[in-house]
Amino acid sequence: MKKNKFTKLMTTISILLLVALASTGCSSQNEHPAEPANAKAPAPATEPAKEAAPASEPSNEGGTANYKDGIYEGLSPNGFGGDVKVEVEVSAGKIAQVTVTQNNETEGVGSLAVDQLPDAIVKAQSTKVDSVTGASYASTAIKEAVEDALTKAK
């Protein structure tokens, strides 16, 4: 009878250890949540003052090129769910609006990039913006599609 109690005790301890180890292995690697997408980036180091562009030419500040006004379509085949198509509106030589017109990204994951990146690209006047955490494929595909559209606007 003592042997039976000992076996039950060892089995119980083994199960508890297994559960403890399994739950530890499933914990998040990132103990600190990412900053919100609308959080401001740290200020860049001070650079020498740049000479202002002549009034007749648009500034190329922040990666903005002198694009031809119009609406341009771009495509990237590298979305998590396949093709990502965008429409980029250029006005006064600048990116005025970015709209994702086709995507098959996962709702709640890749769809976050679809919701957030277009405004970030317009604000930055560049595709050199941070990707959305957890939506790497969708973020990259949107940036590639915008770059494809902007090559047509040059």
TrEMBL record:
<dbReference type="GO" id="GO:0010181">
    <property type="term" value="F:FMN binding"/>
</dbReference>
<feature type="signal peptide">
    <location>
        <begin position="1"/>
        <end position="28"/>
    </location>
</feature>
<protein>
    <recommendedName>
        <fullName>FMN-binding domain-containing protein</fullName>
    </recommendedName>
</protein>
<dbReference type="InterPro" id="IPR007329">
    <property type="entry name" value="FMN-bd"/>
</dbReference>
<feature type="region of interest" description="Disordered">
    <location>
        <begin position="26"/>
        <end position="70"/>
    </location>
</feature>
<feature type="compositionally biased region" description="Low complexity">
    <location>
        <begin position="35"/>
        <end position="61"/>
    </location>
</feature>
<keyword id="KW-0732">Signal</keyword>
<dbReference type="GO" id="GO:0016020">
    <property type="term" value="C:membrane"/>
</dbReference>
<feature type="domain" description="FMN-binding">
    <location>
        <begin position="79"/>
        <end position="153"/>
    </location>
</feature>
<dbReference type="Pfam" id="PF04205">
    <property type="entry name" value="FMN_bind"/>
</dbReference>
